Amino acid sequence: MPRCLGRDPRPAARLSPHALQFRRDHAAARRASEAQVTRGPARIEAFRPFGDWSHPGHVVGASALIEDQHGRVLMQLRDDRPDIVAPGLWCTPGGGVEEGEELEEAVIREIAEETGLAFAPGELSPFVRVVTIERNMTRLFVFRARRHIDPADLRIGEGAGLALLTAAQVSRYPVVEPMQEVVAAHFADPPG
């Protein structure tokens, strides 16, 4: 298992013995509309279909494959809690597209929230679109970028940890479906 990078800046959560409490940053977001996915510089056509796209769900997500200066990708270890999708698995930073957001805005926001890294519009390129196999069949739009990453700059904002992984490591670790195949496709055809 890789050593996780970064630190969790949040104080320990205090849960009432009588009620389950959620942090504000995990509140249910209003979902993106179909119009949001088809507008902006990162439209559906810019993402190569990957896998079976015949029955996409209604939930829209955006994710990022971020490759560092050593050819490793930034991965997040999801919390191991039964109330979330794919608990305890590795994935790329990303999440749901909120109402009013374009795909690129959503992925930039999610990267900042989960890793502490800031990206500007245009730094991420559309890569592929997949339909995830978890319970809500999310239409996931995957961006990618290359960037110098200093592990000291990483901040765990969500999840159990962050790691920079090689292609071999990603192939051996438990990764959210179908992201293991998406990461392998990235390594097989790196950005120019």
Short structural summary:
The chain has 192 residues and is of the alpha/beta class.
β content, as a range?
A: 15-25%
CATH class: Alpha Beta
Q: Tell me roughly what share of residues is in helical segments.
A: 10-25%
Radius of gyration from CA coordinates: 16 Å
Stated plainly, the CATH topology is called Nucleoside Triphosphate Pyrophosphohydrolase
Average residue pLDDT: 82
| Low-confidence residue ranges | 8-30
Q: Could you say how many structural domains there are in total?
A: 1
Name of the CATH superfamily = Nucleoside Triphosphate Pyrophosphohydrolase
- Helix count, DSSP H or I runs of 4 or more residues: 4
Structural class: alpha/beta
Number of strands: 8
Shape: globular
Question: Which strand order spans the largest sheet, edge to edge or round the barrel?
Answer: 1-6-7-2-5
Largest sheet: 5 strands, mixed
Amino-to-carboxy terminus distance: 30 Å
| CATH A-level architecture | Alpha-Beta Complex
**Sequence of secondary-structure elements:** HEEEEEHEEEHH
